[in-house]
Structure formats: C-alpha cells, structure tokens
Amino acid sequence: GQNIDQPTEMTATEGAIVQINCTYQTSGFNGLFWYQQHAGEAPTFLSYNVLDGLEEKGRFSSFLSRSKGYSYLLLKELQMKDSASYLCAVRDHNAGNMLTFGGGTRLMVKP
Amino acid sequence: EAEVAQSPRYKITEKSQAVAFWCDPISGHATLYWYRQILGQGPELLVQFQDESVVDDSQLPKDRFSAERLKGVDSTLKIQPAELGDSAMYLCASSLGQTSNYGYTFGSGTRLTVV
C-alpha cells in the first residue's frame, strides 16, 4: 500500500509565499502529482514530477526528492483565489499505475 | 476544452433507496476511474476501467455498489441500497493512458446526500 501525508490546514497572507509539504511511501514510484481543488469543485491538475528537482510553472513550483519520499508545492505571490485544497497524489507502477491521493491541505489566504 | 461530463450534479436520496451516477469521459480516453471523496478528505479510488474491462475494483463495496462501462465509453455507478455513510462527492476521472504526465482529468462530481 501507500502512505501519503500532508498537513491538514495552512494559513498564509496575500502576497506571501507558502510551501505545502507531502511525504509518501510507495513500492513502485512512478510520478507525483499536485492538484488544486476549490470547495465543491473537481480537482484540477497543477504539476507532475517524476525526476528529482524543481518544476516551475508561473507562480507555482513543485519539488521532488525520490530518495527522501518527499515533495513540496510552492505558491508565490499568493492571491485570494489560491484559497483551496491542494492534493498530493502518487502513481505506483506496482498498483496498476493508479493515483493514490493524500488527504489534502486546505490553504486559507488572508488579506 | 474537452471535459469529463457527470450527472446529476447533486442528488438527495433516502437510505435504502437506489441511486445511480453517470459519467462520460473525454473522447478517446480509454481509462476511466470512479473516486469517492468524503468532505475534508482526499479522493479514494472505487473502480478503474480500461475500455470496458474492470482493472481494479478491490475498494468497491460490492454488496451494494456496482459499476459498468458496457461499450467502453460512458459509465454508470450504482448504489443499492444507499446508506447514510455513502454521503460524499463521487468523482469520475479519465486519462489517455495509465502513464499520462497529466494524471487524470476529473469531472465536476456528483454530491450525494443520503437522509
């Protein structure tokens, strides 16, 4: 099975930077995904990491360390619309390449 | 932009009744997933289809849940009888293949409330 841990809630200020961490344990790692989910809506794809390092996409960046079983999502220049849940998901080739999701981190951005 | 279509968007049903959800994946996506998401938690996989075949339904409570994708396109998830603990968001997702770099595309979900 897989174990995916991320903080339940975080609060940050508009304009600031926030880092959301995710740790995982999996036998056949084959990629890590970050999704954003606004309340009552479907998750939407943010980023994908399969090799170690940083992937940057505008205000959002995602980092992966496979040896540590660790990833983070970095959000810069926070905006009020970034208030949402952020889901870390791991793909495991020993589990049919299905995505297993963490519990999500609810981010609240305050003025 | 291509979307995964789900209906209904909201459903309220009494316990012990039957309920069904429908999903139409993005055209050409062979892989289809049904997830259940309880409020405040991450999505949990119920069943995965590859074309019309079930790949994994190990987490599907088969005494009351069933899923089908008869022609390998749209899919139906059924619960009979519904229980109070089934109240959740039911998400359908599809992907071009099992190793897409974009993961899955999710539909808007069906919010089920069992009373």
Shape of chain B: globular
Describe the sheet with the most strands of chain B: 7 strands, mixed
Give the low-pLDDT segments of chain A. none
List segments of chain B where confidence is low: pLDDT < 50 over at least 5 consecutive residues.
none
β-strand number of chain B: 11
Rounded mean pLDDT of chain B is 93
Largest interface: A-B, 26 and 24 residues
The assigned structural class of chain A equals mainly beta
Straight-line N-to-C gap of chain A: 40 Å
Task: Report the total helices of chain A.
Answer: 0
Report on the structure:
- The complex is a heterodimer of chains A (111) and B (115).
- Chain A is 0% helix and 60% strand.
- With 111 residues, chain A is mostly beta strands.
- In chain A, 37% of the residues are buried.
- In chain B, 0% of the residues lie in helices and 48% in strands.
- Chain B has no helices and eleven strands.
- In chain B, a hairpin with a 6-residue loop joins strand 7 (65-68) and strand 8 (75-79).
- The A-B interface holds A 4, 30-31, 33, 35, 40-45, 48, 50, 87, 89, 91, 96-104, 106 and B 33, 35, 40-45, 48, 55-56, 91, 98-99, 101-109, 111.
Question: What brief labels describe this structure?
Answer:
heterodimer, A: 111 residues, mainly beta, six-stranded mixed sheet, B: 115 residues, seven-stranded mixed sheet, four-stranded antiparallel sheet, 0% helix, 48% strand
Compact overview of the structure:
The complex is a heterodimer of chains A (about 110) and B (about 120). With about 110 residues, chain A is mainly β.
Element layout with pairings:
The complex is a heterodimer of chains A (111) and B (115).
Chain A: E1 3-5, E2 9-13, E3 18-25, E4 29-37, E5 44-49, E6 53-57, E7 60-65, E8 70-75, E9 84-92, E10 98-101, E11 105-110
Chain B: E1 5-7, E2 10-13, E3 19-24, E4 31-37, E5 44-50, E6 53-56, E7 65-68, E8 75-79, E9 88-95, E10 105-106, E11 110-114
Parallel strand pairs in B: 2-11
Antiparallel strand pairs in B: 1-3, 3-8, 4-5, 4-9, 5-6, 7-8, 9-10, 9-11
